[in-house]
Amino acid sequence: MTLAALVLAALPAIAHAVPLAPEDGASPNADDTTAIYWVMLVVAAVIVVAVNLALVAAVVRFRARRGREATRMRAGRRVHARVAALLGAVATAIFVAGVISTSQVRDVEPSGPEGLQAASTRTAQLGVSPPAGDGQPLSMLVSGQQWLWRYEYPDGTFSYYELVVPVDTTVMLELDSTDVVHRWWVPALGGKLDATPGRDNQTWFKAEEVGVYEGRSAQFSGPGYATMRARVRVVSVPEYEAWLDQQKADIQEAQDAVQERVQQLGGRSVAEAVQGAEQ
Question: Rounded CA gap, 163 and 159, in Å?
């Protein structure tokens, strides 16, 4: 990724000025994707410029002039071979860069020193033993449904729409779907990944800065797909732990209130209990 790093270092102003430029990455895997984008853009721009300059040079050199016909020329086999070799070398370099980048994106980095360390069930998913040692990922279950994302945390706490994670912590996402295919995508934190019914897909990110990162719908999943949004809120480790405790307490309080209401209404159905609560 040395070439990609040089390209990114040389084009910081362009990255902010070009409307079609990708969103600035806030996770290592997102940075790799952005680097490949700029490498491909530079290669494509060089090819386009070279082809057009060659065309202009040929037109100027061999154009018809007053009293003289345009020069007719034929390219020999050596020229064809050289051009083919050059284009083949470019294609090979792009292929190799893509393979290397894809491999690096799949390599999960450990959590950083400022992140949540693997010391309790706050990191291990339900039914899974806590990983040994520090720097291990934080596992989350992400379930897509029409038209909302549901997040389940390692201790069984859950939330909708907004995923809250600690900064500098590697977060492993296990994606599935309850109905149709949905597509998870938070541009600043990585690439797109499908949530498919009956199949578990994995992705990861490690947010480097505290903040809120917005996601968007990237797969048609029905008439309400445009309203399906994802949001990742990155906070400090103490804030994350405090939020997790409060969220768990709020969920338990709500469940206790519903259970108490059902018991008060005796043998009435849940629908009747809800209707009675509304009245």
Answer: 7
What are the phi and psi torsion angles at 23 (to 5°)?
Answer: -65, 145
38-52: average pLDDT: 84
CATH of domain 138-236: 2.60.40.420
CA 165, 170, 176, 177 dihedral sign is: positive
| Domain assignments of the chain as residue spans, ordered by start | 2-63+76-106, 138-236
- Judged by DSSP in three states, 161 sits in coil
**What is the residue whose two structure tokens read 């980048």?**
101
184 close to 144: Cβ distance less than 8 angstroms? yes
Enumerate the H helices of the chain as residue ranges.
Answer: 2-10, 12-17, 28-62, 77-106, 237-264, 270-278
For 42, list phi and psi in degrees, rounded to 5: -65, -45
Residue 240 class from Cβ within 10 Å (0-12 exposed, 13-18 middle, 19+ buried)? buried
CA distance 275 to 273: 5
Write the CB contacts of 212 (distance below 8 Å, at least 6 apart in sequence): 231, 232, 233, 234
Provide CB contacts within 8 A for 219, sequence distance 6+: 181, 182, 183, 194, 225
233 close to 166: Cβ distance less than 8 angstroms: no
- Give 152's contacts (C-beta < 8 A, 6+ positions apart): 126, 140, 141, 142, 143, 158
- For position 232, what pLDDT does the model report? 93
Give the chain's length: 279
**What is the rounded CA–CA span in Å between residue 241 and residue 154?**
12
**72-100, pLDDT tens digit by residue?**
666 666 777 887 888 888 888 878 877 77
